[in-house]
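Is this the right way to post structure tokens for a design question? Let me know if I should format differently. Anyway, here goes:
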């Protein structure tokens, strides 16, 4: 995976999907992010293989229904895990093992998008900070947390879009809000 990052392995379909226009790709995951990104990639790629280790997806039923209706563009590969990535200078295929039959299948793809979940690095922060169900820090629009004087920005924050550009915007907002907070302490 690490060797092929940027050479077929990606973590953002919105960022990298256009590099795989009219090419076969795979998505690994079973939650909303994997399903949403598969729907997006189906508009660009020649074929999308959605690989999930369970029989059932955890993502929203409406996304599942849309993907199942696109059987000409999207193949749902359930109860399966990726066991190997192949390619010297770029990704060329995946080895996928069926967890029920133990059968190994080769899938030719040029792109692999991995959506197996995010785990925020927040253990160092006070336990009293409000977090969402996944452990991300809850903020207001000014990046203020539930504890006055503590601001959160970037991927540690509970939000929809996790991209560098949104993290940079969060950081600018948090910096300005922290400045205002500190200025008001000296009034």
């Amino acid at each position: 995976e690490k060797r092929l990052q940027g050479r077929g392995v990606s973590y953002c379909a919105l960022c990298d999907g256009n590099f795989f226009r009219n090419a076969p790709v795979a998505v690994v995951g079973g939650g909303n992010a994997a399903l949403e990104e598969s729907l997006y990639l189906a508009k660009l790629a020649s074929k999308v293989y959605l690989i999930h280790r369970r029989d059932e997806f955890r993502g929203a039923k409406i996304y599942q229904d849309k993907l199942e209706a696109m059987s000409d563009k999207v193949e749902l590969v359930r109860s399966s895990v990726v066991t190997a990535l192949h390619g010297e200078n770029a990704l060329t295929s995946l080895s996928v093992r069926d967890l029920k039959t133990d059968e190994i299948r080769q899938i030719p793809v040029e792109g692999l998008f991995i959506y197996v979940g995010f785990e925020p690095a927040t253990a160092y922060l006070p336990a009293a900070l409000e977090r969402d169900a996944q452990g991300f820090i809850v903020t207001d629009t000014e990046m203020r947390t539930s504890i006055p004087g503590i601001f959160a920005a970037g991927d540690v924050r509970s939000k929809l879009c996790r991209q560098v550009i949104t993290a940079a915007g969060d950081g600018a907002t948090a910096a300005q809000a922290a400045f205002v907070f500190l200025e008001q302490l000296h009034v």
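Format looks fine. Someone answered above. Worth noting: Residues 51 and 77 are 5 Å apart (CA to CA). The mean pLDDT is 94.
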